[in-house]
Amino acid sequence: MERKEEERVCVTGAGGYIVSWAVKLLLSKGYVVHGTVRDPCDEKKNGHLKKLEKASENLLLFKADLFDYEGLYAAIAGCTGVLHVASPVLSDNPSVEQVEPAIKGTRNVLNACLKAKVKKVVVVSSVAAVLLNPCWPKDQPMDENCWSDTEFCKSTKIWYALGKTIAESEALEFATRNELNIVTICLSLAFGPMLQSTLNYSSSFLLSYLKGGREPVSGRDQQLVDVRDFAEVLILLYEKPEAEGRYKCSSYTIRARIWWKN
Length: 262
Description:
Elements: E1 8-11, H1 17-28, E2 32-37, H2 43-50, H3 55-58, E3 59-63, H4 69-76, E4 81-84, H5 94-97, H6 100-115, E5 120-126, H7 150-155, H8 159-178, E6 182-187, E7 189-191, H9 201-210, E8 216-226, H10 227-239, E9 245-249, E10 252-259
Parallel strand pairs: 1-2, 1-4, 2-3, 4-5, 5-6, 6-9, 7-8
Antiparallel strand pairs: 8-10
Helix pairs in contact: 1-10, 4-6, 6-8
């Protein structure tokens, strides 16, 4: 995709850990960025965005969340492309707070993109939508051709994976049905430096373990990616006209102790 002067790109969840790096990179490349956040006046969560180079002239923050179709449309209108990265995070009521927002939020974003006549959309999914398939042949790598089994996710109550799998599948079906150029990218666990002042999930996850707050579980493979590398990949998928369909992003796979809180 050849970039035009002052091309506008909307990025959902702009204040987040991963998304902030994408915003930084887009600004450095000369894009005008429309970023959706829950509260543009929240300096603790979003103040770092305003300090990015070129932010004063090329960054516009819009108040919107995943359930706010009108707010999303206002942010997306006038943009050539959209990077949909905003996502529900782990919570105390995951069956409600991780499934419905992922699915309905993606629907709202894509419907707004269709109405605004956006040319290309990159939807960020997760390796959680890839790796939970007990029927996948053991001798085949779990690449972008593998999908997590939704019934398995339900039976094991892995709600985050369920929401991501359904949302991504619907996004690709939406692309075919509406002839909208949509690419999906399945992100592995991202680590690296933070631009924001608040601790993100993956960093707090690691910090909690280092402080002795999590019980180790051995023998699991964990796929990792540097957050800066992922930002590069995200924008590469947007800019390359030949990018299509589904991708999986991981820099390393390690067999190590994996930790999470029940």
